[in-house]
Design goal:
alpha/beta, UDP-N-acetylmuramoyl-L-alanine:D-glutamate ligase, nine-stranded mixed beta sheet, 13 strands, 26% strand, binds alpha-D-ribofuranose
């Protein structure tokens, strides 16, 4: 089966800092790297590293041919990545010594998708395929309605969290992945508990505390694997990409979550985003 991922492609500009800067503070970085990122691109790479097929639906600018080519090199099908007149999206990432980050996003081409681009990408999808999306592109409502009409399994990672973006798509979702803070924000936006949402499966990631899977009235907790974090950027995206790939391969949810947790744990021991997402073999050998 194929995973169609409507998602952002960013140039990640990562600055190592002694601490995350406060308001009005000027801070010299102690290191700088530039790489491929974006929650969408990270998830597409994670899906392919987990050995599922992924079609990425997105856009770069004329300055982003290398990002499209790199996704292709990583095995992501890039036929539906447009080259827009807008500049490629980028992220300015401050990364402290504990591996925590603060991110400023410039959306650029990620917000320049046309509805016809999404429709054209999904025209080759079949029922049984999965449609995945996050909240760094435009076209969320259009894409999810189309995916539902086509009978695709629909998964959403509600990040970056915006109630106005996630609430309208909730009725279309089969699976929702979000972190603890986002789960609280969603509950206060909807007035509903996770069990009351119209979504069959909700997975809440809890960082170093693991994750929880809510399915109807049932909740199951999964512990985290203990690692020393170097860089938490992209770990959630790695978790989600691996989770979706494992489900696509027919694994039960428990096994899919366990694999995703291992991939996310290995990812936080690495510096960088899409370029360093571990392969399935690396994940299996590590834990
Ligand atoms: O989740 C990490 C990602 O968020 C980074 O790669 C950055 O581009 C932002 O989209």
């Amino acid at each position: 089966m194929t995973i169609y991922n409507l998602g952002s492609i960013n140039i990640d500009l990562v600055y190592r800092v002694p601490h995350l800067p406060g308001a009005g503070e000027t801070l010299a970085s102690t290191g700088f790297t530039k790489g491929l990122g974006g929650k969408g691109a990270n998830m597409s790479v994670a899906v392919t590293r987990a050995q599922s097929q992924c079609v990425h639906i997105g856009a770069v600018g004329g300055d982003g041919h290398w990002a499209k080519d790199r996704l292709n090199d990583y095995g992501v099908i890039d036929d539906h990545i447009l080259v827009s007149e807008e500049a490629t999206g980028h992220a300015i990432i401050a990364l402290d010594n504990a591996g925590e980050n603060a991110i400023i996003l410039h959306p650029g081409a990620n917000q320049a998708l046309l509805e016809t681009d999404i429709a054209s990408a999904l025209s080759s999808a079949n029922s049984g395929d999965t449609y995945l999306f996050q909240n760094e592109t435009n076209g969320l409502e259009h894409g999810v309605k189309l995916a539902r009409e086509l009978g695709l399994r629909i998964a959403h990672a509600a990040a970056p969290f915006e109630a106005e973006a996630v609430v309208p798509v909730l009725p279309f979702l089969d699976l929702l992945v979000l972190n603890e803070v986002e789960a609280e924000q969603l509950q206060s936006a909807t007035g509903q508990t996770l069990a009351e949402l119209p979504v069959a499966d909700v997975v809440v990631t809890l960082g170093a505390k693991g994750c929880r899977w809510h399915s109807g009235q049932k909740t199951r907790a999964f512990p985290a694997i203990s690692v020393i974090p170097i860089d938490t950027t992209g770990a959630g995206d790695t978790f989600t990409g691996y989770l979706i790939a494992a489900l696509d391969q027919g694994k039960p949810m428990e096994q899919a979550i366990e694999l995703a947790g291992k991939a996310g744990a290995l990812m936080v021991t690495r510096l960088g985003t899409a370029d360093v997402i571990p392969t399935l073999q690396e994940v299996q050998e590590a834990f």
